[in-house]
Each structure stands twice: as structure tokens, then as C-alpha cells.
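Input (structure):
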């Protein structure tokens, strides 16, 4: 595995691989790798000749009061894990390498950002779309792998790829969970022990909601109330949002039908967790 820290070196390695007509699977991450990331890497490994993993905690996608500085980082551990997964190139640029000066152009996401994390984190998806535009130009992937854990991100990236005609196939990968159901996240290490014990209620509430919908519930408000009550009574977490939309359009629904997303974000003392369930309603 080669660790590459400059854009120029990364592009020249990619040009060499392209000349050999190799397919390139790309997994963009912010590091502090866990089983969720490794699942994306494994799938990329199976489906491509070359696998590129990027690790970059992108300051553009964090708000001023968010956890950019406390976001967990451990490059040596990540490097060893990437090596085990047979990553070919680990792209690990510095902030100065990615943003040598104040950007003169940024990508602004126009749709699907007035809800869920887009509403709670103004500018977040502009930061995501801007860094991915750069990374797609640097890595030139055949396929890019994203987790459904960040379902709104998947929807936004689909729009970015379509609107800007990136010749990239987006592959969405299911949520990987801890044994107790908590969605794996780099941020989980910032939960206090008591909060870690309570956190599986997020998934439990989503399972209950799914069950209610599958047994005929069609009123969003009732489902949202049920989730809210369960999380509030079984944890100290503060609900940021519990919402239901069509997926991937992220439009409000009068009645639950078609493919929908039930999504939530809950703030604990040092960390905000997200989770979701995508449900296909057939009736
Ligand atoms: P991050 O490092 O948090 O930016 O995540 C990098 C990629 O891994 C994103 O596409 C995430 O959606 C994906 N990811 C993070 N957590 C999980 C998980 N528990 N299961 C599946 N994919 C995940």
C-alpha cells in the first residue's frame, strides 16, 4: 500500500492506473476507521482492480460550533487497518494541501438540504459536495462507495454526480451496527459510558417504527411521536430531529407510501448521533 499526501502524486498514480485500463474503487472517509468503513473497503476491493481510500477530516463540512477539533483521529491505526484490507493507495492530504488558500469557488447544494442534517447543520452539505468534487477530480474513480448510514449524503452525492456529470458510479452500502444495534460511528468513542449504554435506543425506536409501518401505520406524525417518546424516556439524549420523507427525493409525505426514510439525530453531551431506516412500502 502506498500512502500519498500530495494531490500531484495521487493524480499521477491514478493516470498510470488509467493508462493500464484499471477500474478504480474509491472510499472517501474522515478516518478513525471502524467496521462500517471496512465493509465499504471490502466491497470496493471485490469490485475493482485498484482501491483508493482517502482519510481527510474536512473542515469545510463542520460548523463553527461543531466537533472538528475533537473529531477522533489515529492515522497509524488507520494505516494498519487499510493495509490489512489490501488498499492500494491511501490518500492522506493535509488541510493545506487540499485548501492552500481561501476557496475562490465552492459547490452549493440547492436541493434536499432544507431537511434533516442539512437543516441542523447549515453549510454542511456544501462542504461535503465541495470536497467530493475535488476528490473526484483527484482520484477519478470508476465507483465511489458511501454508507447508507449517511442517507442524506448519499442522496446529495447522487445529485452532485448527475448534475456535474462525473463519470462515477455511486455504490450505497448498508449500515453496519454494533451487536446491540448502535450504528457504528467514529464518534461513538466520544459517548460517556452511560450514554453508550443508552444509545442503542435509537435503533430500537427505528425498529419499532418499521414494525408499526409494516403492520399498517400510515401517519407520519404518530410514528414520529412513538420514536420521540421512546428515545426521550430511555436516554438523556436531546432530540435534534425525527423526520420522515420520501427517499431519495427527501420530500414531505402526506401519507406514508413508496420508499421512505425514517431518520433521526440525537445530541448527547459531546456527540451527536444519526441513524435511519429506509422502508419500502408495498400496498
Ligand atoms: P465518515 O468517515 O464518517 O465520513 O464515513 C465515511 C464513509 O463511511 C461514509 O460513506 C459513511 O456513510 C460510511 N459509514 C460510516 N459509518 C458507517 C456504518 N456504520 N455503516 C456503513 N457505512 C458507514
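Output (sequence):
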Amino acid at each position: 500500500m502506498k500512502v500519498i499526501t500530495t494531490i500531484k502524486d495521487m493524480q499521477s498514480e491514478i493516470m498510470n492506473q488509467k493508462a493500464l485500463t484499471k477500474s478504480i474503487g474509491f472510499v472517501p472517509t474522515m478516518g478513525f476507521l471502524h467496521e462500517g468503513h471496512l465493509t465499504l473497503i471490502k466491497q470496493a476491493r471485490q469490485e475493482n482492480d485498484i482501491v483508493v481510500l482517502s482519510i481527510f477530516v474536512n473542515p469545510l463540512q463542520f460548523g463553527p460550533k461543531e466537533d472538528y477539533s475533537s473529531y477522533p483521529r489515529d492515522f497509524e491505526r488507520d494505516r494498519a487497518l487499510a493495509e490489512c484490507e489490501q488498499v492500494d493507495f491511501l490518500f492522506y492530504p493535509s488541510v493545506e494541501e487540499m485548501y492552500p488558500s481561501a476557496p475562490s469557488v465552492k459547490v452549493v447544494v440547492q436541493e434536499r438540504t432544507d431537511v434533516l442534517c442539512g437543516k441542523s447543520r447549515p453549510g454542511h452539505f456544501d462542504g461535503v459536495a465541495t470536497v467530493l468534487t475535488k476528490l473526484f477530480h483527484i482520484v477519478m474513480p470508476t465507483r465511489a462507495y458511501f454508507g447508507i448510514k449517511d442517507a442524506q449524503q448519499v442522496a446529495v452525492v447522487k445529485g452532485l454526480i448527475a448534475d456535474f456529470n462525473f463519470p462515477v458510479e455511486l455504490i450505497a452500502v448498508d449500515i453496519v451496527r454494533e451487536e446491540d444495534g448502535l450504528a457504528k460511528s467514529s464518534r461513538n468513542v466520544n459517548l460517556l459510558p452511560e450514554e453508550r449504554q443508552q444509545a442503542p435506543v435509537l435503533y430500537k425506536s427505528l425498529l419499532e417504527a418499521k414494525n408499526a409501518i409494516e403492520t399498517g401505520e400510515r401517519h407520519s406524525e404518530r410514528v414520529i411521536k412513538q420514536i420521540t417518546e421512546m428515545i426521550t424516556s430511555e436516554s438523556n439524549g436531546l432530540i435534534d430531529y425525527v423526520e420522515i420523507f420520501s427517499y431519495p427525493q427527501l420530500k414531505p409525505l402526506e401519507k406514508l407510501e413508496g420508499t421512505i426514510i425514517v431518520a433521526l439525530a440525537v445530541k448527547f453531551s459531546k456527540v451527536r448521533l444519526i441513524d435511519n431506516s429506509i422502508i419500502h412500502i408495498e400496498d
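Notes: The pocket of adenosine monophosphate is lined by residues 29-30, 36-37, 39-40, 146-147, 149-150, 173, 175-176, 183-186 (CB under 6 Å). The mean pLDDT is 97.
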